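Table S2 (continued). Query chain:
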Amino acid sequence: MAQILVTGERWWARLALIILSFVTLGFVISLAVSIGEIPIPLETTAKAVSNRLFGTAFELSRIHQGIVWDYRLSRALLAASAGAALALSGAILQALLRNPLAEPYVLGISAGASTGAVAVMILGFGYGVLTLSTGAFIGAVVAFVLVSALAAGAGGGADRIILAGVAGSQLFNALTSYIVTTSANAEQARGVMFWLLGSLSGVRWPDVYLAAPVALIGFAVSMFYARALDAFTFGADAAAALGIAINRVRIILLGATALMTAAMVSIVGSIGFVGLVIPHAARFLVGPAHGRLLPAAAITGAIFMVAADIVSRVIIPQQILPIGVVTALFGAPAFALILYKARRPV
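Corresponding output:
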């Protein structure tokens, strides 16, 4: 099947995979809404959604209606948006930087978001005006600007961007550690640690209204430059030889990646391995052409993140694990398997 999808010899197989992907995404979202401390049948879930979207009058308890619409559905949709955005960001960076280990956090965005969140939570910057998510977003943007300036000053090549990202990450991680060590009490330190590991707790519809459009915009921008990304996989010189304005395209795509990553990290915290593993899994399924790879990475990332959220809520009774722990537990072995499957013969 993978070979058929790569060569494009059977269009119906590709169409079937697209349909299957959306059906699977809808199924895992339905499961995410139904599963929890209070199990809710799928039929009740469908009725609750219908009552809110289409104005139907199915008789439901206010508790079930509130759980489905105000808590679980918004959480599932945000998980899908974050998974899609992080996977897209990873696919873009791996092509732009020609590095299979590139992921969204290589630009130092996650570290900057952490510093911004800690500054609001512990130091009280913008108290009463800035929320935790807003502080994290500002920190992420500041980190991206600083890393971009450092990379540009060092020559602007792909290797310089990676090195600048590493330096920026170390700087902002050090600032975060310093603030927590010197200014936080035990409760604040616990809260920061939980946020840094990724959390969907407290997600509501305003967060979805931010995350979903950002993910869609990032997807549209990346698809517009899909052919340019194909050229970048052969190097910047090859892309320039094909008439691509490499500096302009690189700035636009890095900016889109930074926007997606900053928005998602500011809402859910740092969630690793999604941007690293999912693009490789999608590439294994549909091949390296970005016209197919980007949609495959987006929907696979969405499915993976929603499934990880389900696991985080049910793996330990009456306790919710940080979702970043779950993605790492599944992502690390999956990445090892991908590396093993893709090994080159000696």
